[in-house]
Automatic annotation (TrEMBL):
Pathway: Quinol/quinone metabolism; 1,4-dihydroxy-2-naphthoate biosynthesis; 1,4-dihydroxy-2-naphthoate from chorismate: step 2/7; Quinol/quinone metabolism; menaquinone biosynthesis
Span of domain Thiamine pyrophosphate enzyme TPP-binding: 436-550
InterPro entries from the UniProt entry: DHS-like_NAD/FAD-binding_dom (IPR029035), MenaQ_synth_MenD (IPR004433), MenD_middle (IPR032264), THDP-binding (IPR029061), Thiamin_PyroP_enz_TPP-bd_dom (IPR012001), TPP_enzyme_TPP-bd (IPR011766)
Family: Belongs to the TPP enzyme family. MenD subfamily.
Entries under PANTHER family matching the protein: 2-SUCCINYL-5-ENOLPYRUVYL-6-HYDROXY-3-CYCLOHEXENE-1-CARBOXYLATE SYNTHASE, PROTEIN PHYLLO, CHLOROPLASTIC
GO biological process terms, semicolon-separated: menaquinone biosynthetic process
Cofactor: thiamine diphosphate; Mg(2+); Mn(2+)
UniProt-listed HAMAP family: MenD
Cofactor note: Binds 1 thiamine pyrophosphate per subunit.
Name used for this protein in its record: 2-succinyl-5-enolpyruvyl-6-hydroxy-3-cyclohexene-1-carboxylate synthase
Protein species of origin: Terribacillus aidingensis
Subunit structure as annotated in this protein's UniProt entry: Homodimer.
Reaction catalysed by this enzyme: isochorismate + 2-oxoglutarate + H(+) = 5-enolpyruvoyl-6-hydroxy-2-succinyl-cyclohex-3-ene-1-carboxylate + CO2
UniProt keyword Transport present: no
């Protein structure tokens, strides 16, 4: 068998086994050394291919695909620094527990460490940010080698999904020539079974554990249920049942999947970030215990509440073993299915008793009234921009927000609604890179998606717009342009007047109409809220990408937000004083 025939069978069997294991999509960045993988992925009858010229953008796009589908997505690139460009998205995938399968082409062993072009050390190049690494053998086509390559495909899928999901890396050394022979028979299989995909059962809840937690809930102490960023759609109904049964407030992060949908929201406290903003209010809301589901919430005031109450009984419920507790508290971790645990607790007999749920519910109403009192205001602010997006976005749609200010405004202004809106954000490492590409990966699901992004984050990932244009993806991009890093204006660095603009404010002075023109996108500069609403509605009526720019001023933005928080603090303190009286 010739070299080309061997290469074709070897890679073909791998690609087919990867698909049979459950990988349905691959993102390919063109290059020479990756030719066998790229062509055989493209020729496979069932694999969906996306081509993205920029490897950094490609990896974040794959991240979005995997986040939305909750299935592993493959990535293919050539050797050298192409693979290094995957690193930011790999790190994000690792910390946000998103399954990616990285397939990097490489020079054969004789061309390594000898000065050959596009040859770098790719062994373990992602270090501890992948769950598993494997250096593939050079292609052979004997039965043992074909079984081997199929087994590695299945194992990659298994490793990506086992426990907490995450990225895995397979490195493929290839010798030239590199072009497969598609006239061959049995490219995908030699008639032998490729094996069956791995199956995962569910663990049984420990009855003693359920009883112990039920005793805590029945103790009459002041408890909080907290749901941080998480993507289990079954958890919302289950948590609400526990909260209703035991009369507990639920502090719901904007990425918790609890603020929108058809479930009961009577116990949901969506404005807890605003409620806890002032230390004077937090001092009157000291809990006895907290049970948290999902990752650490976005809210910094919630973190302050934990730090100010180190003796509180703190329980974190996770699907699989891990350690997400950044405050340094004494914490009990419970590893089980969170929704199943909630269902079991909701069935426990709950006695009628006085709780502090009504206090939280009234505070939530007060905070909502303060935050929403700008209905007649025509001037666009960063907060009203988010409110208007959530008002106008169609039902059953996605909203992707950037980090820094957009996620914090989503936290403040995403009010409970029966309209289902799926919120997304890259909160694994909270970075501002790759946001456009990740949002496009989410939009590739076919659901209308709105991206809310700051000007610096948009600048970081404008390359991602090429793929969105090429594939006609439906994405409304709202760029909140405050000409720099708006989040820093809220931080102590703002007091360093001499160097603030150069090191933190970092104004770009870019006219984003030119970016829209470069990628042939419809563009609107919204002058006020009415114009902004019209631009949103127009984008939702038509296909493709749309770029809407909202210009704000950083110092005015700080004043507007702080005015809201101070108004909320005054009203909350008045209520709490009257309540205790």
């Amino acid at each position: 068998m010739s070299h080309i025939q061997t290469l074709t069978k070897y890679v073909g069997h791998f690609v087919d086994a990867l698909w049979r294991s459950g990988v349905e999509q691959v993102v390919i960045s063109p290059g020479s050394r990756s030719t066998p993988l790229a062509l055989l992925m493209t020729e496979h009858p069932h694999m969906k291919q996306w081509v993205n010229l920029d490897e950094r953008s490609a990896a974040f796009f794959a991240l979005g695909l995997a986040k939305e589908s909750q299935k592993p997505v493959a990535l293919v690139c050539t050797s050298g620094t192409a693979a290094a460009n995957y690193m930011p998205a790999v790190v994000e995938a690792f910390y946000s527990r998103v399954p990616l399968i990285l397939l990097t082409a490489d020079r054969p062993h004789e061309l390594r460490d000898v000065g050959a072009p596009q040859a770098i050390n790719q062994i373990q190049m992602y270090g501890g940010f992948v769950k598993w690494f494997h250096e593939m053998m050079l292609p052979e086509a004997n039965p043992a080698a074909l079984r081997y390559v199929q087994q590695q495909a299945a194992r990659a899928m298994q490793q990506a999904l086992e426990g907490n999901a995450g990225p895995v890396h397979l490195n493929f050394p290839f010798r030239e020539p590199l072009t497969p022979d598609f006239t061959m028979e049995n490219i995908w299989s030699s008639g032998e079974s490729n094996g069956e995909p791995s199956l995962y059962g569910t663990s049984q809840l420990d009855e003693q554990l359920v009883s112990q937690l039920a005793e805590l809930l029945a103790s009459g102490k002041k408890g909080l249920l907290v749901v941080g960023p998480q993507e289990d759609k079954a958890l919302a109904q289950a948590v609400v049942r526990v909260a209703k049964a035991w009369q507990l407030p639920v502090l719901a992060d904007p990425l918790s999947q609890l603020r929108s949908g058809e479930h009961d929201k009577d116990t949901i406290i969506e404005t807890y970030d605003t409620i806890l903003k002032a230390a004077s209010v937090r001092a009157q809301l000291q809990p006895d215990y907290i049970i948290r589901f999902g990752a650490m919430p976005v809210s910094k005031p919630y973190m302050f509440l934990l730090k100010e109450n180190p003796a509180v009984k703190h329980i974190v419920v996770e699907n699989h073993a891990g350690y997400r507790e950044p405050v340094g508290m004494h914490t009990q971790f419970i590893y089980c299915n969170p929704a199943s645990l909630c269902e079991a607790l909701a069935k426990q007999p709950a006695e009628k008793r006085d709780t502090w749920l009504p206090v939280w519910q009234q505070m939530n109403r007060i905070a909502c009234d303060v935050l929403q009192d700008d209905a007649a205001q025509l001037e666009l602010t960063e907060g009203t921009t988010v409110q208007d997006i959530l008002q106008e976005t169609p039902a059953d749609s996605h909203v992707f927000v950037g980090n820094s200010m957009p996620i914090r405004d989503l936290d403040s202004f995403f009010f409970a609604t029966d309209k289902h809106v799926q919120p997304w954000c890259n909160r694994g490492t909270n970075g501002i890179d790759g946001v456009v590409s990740t949002a496009l990966g989410v939009a590739a699901s076919g659901k209308r998606t709105t991206l809310v992004i700051g000007d610096l984050s948009f600048y970081h990932d404008m390359n991602g717009l090429m793929l969105g244009r090429n594939y006609g993806l439906d994405l409304t991009i709202v760029v909140i342009n405050n000409n720099g890093g708006g989040i820093f204006s809220f931080l102590p660095q703002a007091q360093e007047a001499a160097h603030f603009e150069t090191l933190f404010g970092t104004p770009t002075n870019l006219d984003f109409a030119h970016a829209a023109n470069l990628y042939q996108l419809p563009y609107t500069l919204a002058a006020d809220r009415n114009a902004f609403s019209r631009a949103l509605q127009e984008s939702y009526r038509t296909k493709g990408m749309h770029l809407i720019e909202v210009r704000t001023e950083r110092e005015a933005n700080v004043s507007w937000h702080r005015g809201k928080w101070q108004q909320a603090e005054r009203q909350l303190l008045t209520y709490l004083e009257q309540h205790h009286a």
